Amino acid sequence: MSQTTPAATKKIECFSMTGYAQARAEQDGWAVRVSVKSVNHMFLDLKLRMPEGFDLYDLRLRQIVREKIHRGHVEVTIGVEPGKAAPVQVNKELVQSYLKAAEALRQETRAATDMDVVALLRLPGVITGVAASVPETEEEQERLGKLLDSGLRDALAKLDDMRRTEGRHLVEELRDRLARIGGYVDQVRGLAATLRPAFARRLETRLKELLGGIGIEPARLAQEAALLAERSDISEELDRLKSHLQQFTRLLDGAGELGKKLDFLLQEMHREANTMLSKTPGVENDALAITGVALEIKAEIEKLREQVQNIE
């Protein structure tokens, strides 16, 4: 009996929110041009531009985009070339302005000029394009609608290819930074283990200054040092930070729509790093070294946040 892979183990690829693609589709004399551009955005912000009069296709085209894209600022521009001869659009107001300017110039220079209509049509802005109108019958409208669907799906498929490639590069960079932060966490843990003697030395020095050289009971010194060490203990922050790194990696392994989840995790990681810095006193070289490494962790977290902003 053949075994099938459970749906839960199926790997879904990570997508970047940045990309651009275009496509063209032709049928029954109609030609459709579609361009799609996407950039990062917290939610799906869709802008759909079509020729005037094609609003009946708006909802179906928006639904196609929503099926493929869930986050990002997306601009879809659709151009339609008519399947049969259509009237040429002429900017008549602009033509009148050209005529008035020509007449004024003729009177001023007393030149005898005959107006050439063909030359007038060649002037900038006079011809504004060919009007594309929606077919009249429902059957023709549906055929054009399917052509628009096809062109849009083709453009979205090309956009997905670009976003998928960019997503793979992003994930590789994220994994590198996670490994770097993990190394820093281990480094801080090793340094933190050496701080208790430093606490004792600082406490002893301070008490001697206050007591004027009078001897200090070792038990009392150990007790005060332990209290100071407890207030400055960062083991919990390190454990939580390590756990967040593991969860981050699991999300990347599962991929899919994970931008918001990763952003939330990074907020938690940033909080742990800040707490670690606030609890580490600047005593001797070990604590100063912890501060330096903790700052490196914060810098890497900030770079992760910048990259995660572009993941769907």
Number of strands: 6
The profile of the biggest β sheet is: 4 strands, mixed
Assembly type: single chain
Structural class: alpha+beta
What gyration radius follows from the Cα positions, in whole Å?
Answer: 34 Å
Please give the domain count.
3
Distance between the termini: 39 Å
Strand order of the largest sheet: 1-2-4-3
Task: Describe what this molecule looks like in 3D.
- A 4-stranded mixed sheet has the order 1-2-4-3, covered by helices on one side. Strands 5-6 form a two-stranded antiparallel ribbon.
- Strand 3 (44-49), helix 1 (58-68) and strand 4 form a beta-alpha-beta unit.
- It has helices at 58-68, 92-109, 117-121, 138-192, 195-211, 218-231, 235-254, 259-279, 284-308; strands at 19-27, 30-39, 44-49, 72-81, 88-90, 127-130.
- The protein has 3 domains: 12-83 and 136-162, 2-Layer Sandwich (Ribosomal Protein S5, domain 2); 88-129, no CATH class; 165-308, Butyryl-CoA Dehydrogenase, subunit A, domain 3 (Up-down Bundle), CATH 1.20.140.
- The chain has 312 residues and is of the alpha+beta class.
- The longest helix has 55 residues, at 138-192.
- Helix content is 60%, strand content 13%.
